[in-house]
Write a structure and sequence with these properties.
Elements lengths: L6 H27 L5 H9 L18 H7 L2
């Protein structure tokens, strides 16, 4: 099985890292301390297309497959 990332997948990975650094990491300790679930993150991820990674493009998703979806959770 080839798990080499395409350019689109690499771009998505870079965007995920940027979002984590800019949006999530600065508030992560607060969520942990207060035992909160960061629901606002779902809206941020959805706006950037992360909730449709494996959904085919013809249905409004990114159509990038299971590998980037699995890596997203890292």
């Amino acid at each position: 099985m080839d798990i080499t990332l395409t350019q689109a997948q690499q771009d998505l990975r870079a965007l995920a890292a940027e979002l984590a650094d800019r949006e999530f990491r600065p508030r992560a300790s607060r969520w942990d301390e207060n035992e909160e679930y960061p629901e606002e993150n779902l809206a941020i991820l959805a706006k950037q297309g992360f909730t449709g990674i494996t959904v085919p493009e013809e249905y409004g998703g990114l159509g990038l497959g299971a590998v980037p979806a699995a890596r997203r959770g890292r």
